[in-house]
UniProtKB/TrEMBL annotation:
It comes from the Bacteria. Coiled coil: none annotated. Residues 23-135 form the SHSP domain. It comes from Streptomonospora nanhaiensis. Belongs to the small heat shock protein (HSP20) family. This is HSP20 family protein. The lineage of its organism: Bacteria, Bacillati, Actinomycetota, Actinomycetes, Streptosporangiales.
Length: 145
């Protein structure tokens, strides 16, 4: 498995945040998709309205941390807000990556409010053929994927 696990309480936190409207002091949720495409593991995060220079990526011991900041409206004085549904402030998400991923070669791209990470599968985790000598004949044949 490429992605070992995510926070099991993430959905509960999102629901509680919506019901209680308690955004102060807690990072907002960051929706994500993750899938394998050939020998690459792809993870995409929705970060609309976030400037690329406010995004921070860090990998430590196979834990990938994504942080971003989305500033609120510049001038809120004199405003009579009717609806506020768009989250502002700090966003953070951690993913626990499997040992089979090459975390030294992560490529990141930020286009149209979507941060896409491409993480290659480590060479040692890729399927390979193994030569086996057949019954003392000394001749090897290929077996495997």
């Amino acid at each position: 498995m490429m992605l070992m696990r995510t926070d099991p309480f993430r959905e509960f936190d999102r629901l509680a945040q919506r019901l209680l409207d308690d955004t102060a002091g807690r990072p907002a949720a960051m929706p994500m998709d993750a899938y394998r495409e050939g020998d690459t593991f792809v993870v995409s995060f929705d970060l609309p309205g976030v400037r690329a220079d406010s995004i921070d990526l860090e990998v430590e011991r196979n834990v990938l941390t994504v942080r971003a900041e989305r500033p609120g409206p510049a001038d809120s004085q004199g405003r009579d807000t009717v609806v506020t549904e768009r989250p502002y402030g700090s966003f953070s998400r951690q993913l626990f990556l499997g040992e089979t991923l090459d975390t030294d070669n992560i490529a990141a791209d930020y286009t149209d409010g979507v941060l896409t990470l491409r993480i290659p599968v480590a060479e040692q985790a890729k399927p390979r053929k193994i030569s086996i000598a057949a019954g003392g004949s000394g001749q090897a044949r290929q077996i495997g994927a």
